[in-house]
Design brief:
The complex is a heterodimer of chains A (84) and B (141). By secondary structure, chain A is mainly alpha-helical. In chain A, 83% of the residues lie in helices and 6% in strands. The longest helix of chain A has 56 residues. Chain A is elongated and about 85 Å long. Chain A starts with a helix and ends with a strand. Chain B is mainly beta. Helix content of chain B is 5%, strand content 43%. In chain B, the strands form three sheets. A five-stranded antiparallel β-sheet of chain B has the order 1-8-7-2-3, with no helix packed on it. In chain B, strand 7 and strand 8 form a beta hairpin. Chain B starts with a strand and ends with a strand. Classes of the chains: A mainly alpha (84), B mainly beta (141). The interface between A and B is medium-sized, with 26 and 31 residues.
C-alpha cells in the first residue's frame, strides 16, 4: 500500500467511525418518530374518509354552482377579481 | 386578469407536507388592505388587518373548495369561486385577496392577488373572487 493510499484509508476509517457513532445516536429518535407516524396514519385515514364524504356530498358540479353564483353576482352589478 | 402572487415559502411547505390540498385541509380566502410580501410564511391578521368580522365578512375569510387533479405528470388545483356580500353595512376597505391554509399549524399562506385599488362594498354589494377553472389556481409539474 502506498503512503497516499494508507492516508486515504485512515481518513476513510475515521469518517466511517464518526458516521457510525452519529447514526447510533440518531437511531432511537428515528424509531420513535416512525412509531409516532404509525399513530398518525389511522387518524389521517379517518380524515381522508371524512373529506371523501364531504366531496361526495358536494358532488362534481359544486364548482360550477359556485361559478354560476359568482357570474350572476357580477351580472347583477357586483365587482369581481379574476384570478389567473 | 389579476396576477397570482406566490408566497415564496409555499413551495418548501409543499415538500414538507404542510399542505394537504385534496380537500382534507380547509383553504380560505381572506381580504386585507395591507400589502402582503412574498417572503411571508403565515397568514395572520396582525400583519394584515382584515375587515371587521361583520357585515358579511367572517373572521378568517371565506372557505373555498379545492379540486385536485393530475394529468401527464402535472397536478392542477382548482378552487371554487367565492362571493363576498356586504350585509347590514359596509365591508372593507380591502385591496388584497389572500388564499391560505386554515388547517395547517401556522395558517400557512399560499398566494395573493392585488385588486389594484382599495375597495369598500356598500350594503348588498358583492365582490366575486373568480378563480380560473380552466388553468387552475396553480399547477405543479
Amino acid at each position: 500500500m502506498t503512503d497516499t493510499k494508507a492516508i486515504l484509508q485512515k481518513t476513510y476509517d475515521t469518517l466511517c467511525v464518526r458516521k457510525t457513532e452519529i447514526d447510533a445516536k440518531a437511531a432511537p429518535l428515528a424509531a420513535k418518530r416512525e412509531k409516532l407516524w404509525e399513530k398518525i396514519h389511522p387518524v389521517k385515514a379517518e380524515i381522508d374518509k371524512l373529506a371523501a364524504e364531504e366531496k361526495a356530498i358536494k358532488g362534481d358540479d359544486y364548482h360550477v354552482l359556485c361559478q354560476e353564483i359568482g357570474q350572476l353576482a357580477v351580472k347583477l352589478g357586483g365587482k369581481k377579481l379574476s384570478g389567473n | 386578469m389579476a396576477a397570482y402572487n406566490k408566497f415564496q415559502d409555499f413551495v418548501e411547505q409543499v415538500l414538507k407536507a404542510i399542505h394537504d390540498l385534496d380537500g382534507t385541509h380547509t383553504l380560505k380566502v381572506a381580504l386585507t388592505n395591507t400589502a402582503p410580501t412574498a417572503g411571508q410564511t403565515n397568514w395572520n391578521t396582525t400583519d394584515h388587518p382584515a375587515p371587521a368580522a361583520a357585515n358579511g365578512y367572517s373572521a378568517g375569510g371565506a372557505t373555498t373548495t379545492p379540486t385536485l387533479s393530475e394529468s401527464s405528470g402535472t397536478a392542477k388545483l382548482v378552487l371554487s369561486d367565492v362571493v363576498f356580500t356586504a350585509s347590514g353595512g359596509q365591508l372593507g376597505p380591502f385591496r388584497y385577496i389572500v388564499v391560505y391554509n386554515d388547517t395547517s399549524p401556522g395558517d400557512n399562506a399560499i398566494a395573493w392577488y392585488d385588486y389594484g385599488s382599495s375597495l369598500t362594498l356598500n350594503d348588498t354589494e358583492t365582490f366575486t373572487v373568480d378563480f380560473d377553472a380552466t388553468n387552475g389556481f396553480f399547477t405543479l409539474a
